[in-house]
Amino acid sequence: MRITVATMGLTLTVGMLLVMQGGCSKKSIQSGGDAQSTERGMAKSGGPAPSAMGSTGGVGGGGMEPPAATFPDLSLSSKPDDLETGGLRGFDSVSGGKAPSEERLGGGGTMLAKVEPSESTARQIEDIRREQAKEQAASAEAGLRDVFFGYDSWTITEEGRQSLTHDAQWIKANAGALVKIEGHCDERGTLAYNLVLGEKRAKAVRNYLVELGVGANRLAVVSYGKERPFCNERSESCYQQNRRGHVVVRSK
Amino acid sequence: MNRVIIGLMIALCVVVGAGLFGILDSRATDVFLEATRPDFQKIPIGVFGFQNGGGPEWLGGRIEEVLKADLQRSLVFSLVDLPAIGVKAREVSTTDKAIFKQAAENGVSVLVWGKSGQKNGSKDSELLMDGFVYDSGSDEVVGGKRYVGSTSVVRLMAHRFADELVFRYTGEPGIARTKIVYVAEHGNARELFVMDYDGYEPKQITADGFLNLMPRWSPDRRFIVFTAYRSRNTQDIDILELATGKRWTLVSMAGLNITPALSPDGNFLAFASSQDGNSEIYKLDTRTKTPQRLTVNQGGDLSPTWSPTGREIAFTSDRGGAPQVFIMSADGSNVRRLTYEGDYNAAPAWSPRGNWIAYVCRTAQRLYKICTVSPDGQKRVQITTGPGIDDSPSWSPDGRHITFSSTVDGKSHIYMVDTDGKGLERITFGGTHNSSPSWSPAL
After folding, report:
1. Domain for residue A153, yes or no?
2. B186: which strand partners?
3. Total count of domains within chain A
4. Is position A207 within any domain?
5. A83 inside domain
6. Confidence at residue A64, expressed as pLDDT on a 0 to 100 scale
7. Three-state SS for B183?
């Protein structure tokens, strides 16, 4: 048994050395580009042009720091920090009635920075609300119709085609208007796949509008998956409402 | 008892050694710790109270309650009901041979007891917990711990004590001090929160006012990567440093930027982006900031999850029409389909031991449940049953539990379940629409 323990010790020691070496050689250098070059690099990797939405839409950074030129070193070059209380120390001997040595636990939640909605965040939230209300009003006034989809489906139905024929007429008649198509899903299925499904629906709507002669550069798409439902009931009639390509007039 | 411990330690060394020498990969499913074997015998443990000496009235009871729950969830120990087997004591001391003998004779392997109360001479009402451990295999008092801190760390005292016990008897870090990051509804928005693994102490970590989705831990627990809707119209993949609240954008491409996952060594971020028309999986080198596209096809590819060796990636793809789980090498080569049963399998999560991949499976009754499959596709198990839409499985770092969201109780909440489908436990009770849980690595 002693031999086994010794072998284990040796294995661990050799292992640690390898880990440490690996760690050292992996020490990363904070260089070689920034967030922007990431984007450029990505664009170079091939494929069709980016979607019409680009980076023009939206309220911008708001309460958040703008995209940083660099981001922190994420490689495991050092031992993981125990940000809370330090690693385990094992049990202390208490033979002879000795008390264990004192281990002080700090903070309780100090590993987490406190999030306090800042003034700029509040402004961003207010911007989002205002923009949304504006879009809703403009879309209602335009009388744009939404497109509804079958379960698991992103195929546009005959009824959907009629709605889009109507929408295309309005868009063509209002040359200055920019339109956004939001893809939505019902609550069934995974959050992640529903984001992709929502995008497929939004793009199916966009593609059909382009077929009807609307300029692709006036049509943006965004997917909300099942995260912004129109109703919350667990029924087929509600699910039907949420499987939607929502066509809205963009506020800017 | 000692044989079990030695066996565990040898198994640990085999795994550590094998991992280091690069022979452990997803196919080596016969190498794993004894504590996850189906024939593993849990260690019977008895917990006496933590007598209260001058602290708040709830103190001793709270410590005992949290410790017992931790030991139960460890799946390493089985709690023995001491009074039921006639082992009773008003007060235990480290020299209480009679009670030790009685416990040992009744099959109790480990006995735990302690004290709690106000720390002597402490002005700012500091609390104290003493815990002691007796091992019947070696017939000795193993040792003790003394924790000191404010009322806000009482649960942590018990969690630490539980992790010390798990470490002593398995050589593995326990999960009692792990955390879960998740998404919850806040106002009209979805924000990120971090809570203890047992659902206590939830703390908000973003306050953007719109959508923050699909958070994942960095392997060193210092950062969270997630999808943030920078505006209502575009998404970025951001990284947040928990200790400071500082935030950076990692990926900002056209279209969807979703399902980020850092590699086990932290050197690569896998994610899905639809900048090239449909959702594809990319890999960003976090040191050089060089991206690489890994998938090339007309279907939607998303939800990458790394094998613990970092050599392979499992992901969702609907290239065949409906979503299924696939595996590829981390360079995008050698793609093969993993799931064949049913027409909807998605959101894979590779277990930390490498021998299972959890995912959302749609059953014949069109229910969305949690399933697991071995990386060679040979074994498949449905873990959860019944009503409710289950989503976003994520493994505990010890590989013995899966946390996930479910609508079984109406609004979406976070649950955990043992890998054999037993021990189902709801862990969020407050808040609305708690979803997308991700379990932190162990300390």
Report:
1. yes
2. B189
3. 1
4. yes
5. no
6. 38
7. strand
Inter-chain touch A227–B190, beta carbons under 8 Å? yes
According to the model, what pLDDT value does residue A252 have?
60
CA B361, chain centre distance (Å): 20
Q: Which residues of A touch B273 (CB under 8 A)?
A: 42
Which residue would you say has higher pLDDT here, A38 or B74?
Answer: B74
Look up the domain containing A187 and give its range.
144-249
Residues B189 and B226 sit within 8 Å (Cβ to Cβ):
no
Residue B285 exposure: Cα atoms within 13 Å on the Cβ side:
16
Whole-structure pTM value: 0.84
State mean pLDDT over B3-28. Answer: 44
Look at residue A241 in the predicted model and tell me its pLDDT: 97
- Residues of chain A with C-beta less than 8 angstroms from the C-beta of B162: none
> What pLDDT, on the 0 to 100 scale, is given for residue A25?
33
Q: Judge: A104–B207 Cβ closer than 8 Å, yes or no.
A: no
B98 vs A86: CA distance, rounded Å: 36
Report the alpha-carbon distance of residue B275 to residue B293 in Å, rounded: 11
CATH number at residue A225: 3.30.1330.60
Are A72 and B241 a contacting pair at CB < 8 A? yes
Domains annotated for chain B, with CATH where assigned, are 42-170 (3.40.50.10070), 179-439 (2.120.10.30)
- Interface confidence, given as ipTM, is 0.88
Of A70, A111, A193, Cβ closest to residue B316:
A193
pLDDT digits (tens, 9 = 90+) for A63-83: 333 344 577 888 765 554 444
Q: Which residue has the higher pLDDT, B28 or B193?
A: B193
Q: Is residue A224 domain-resident?
A: yes
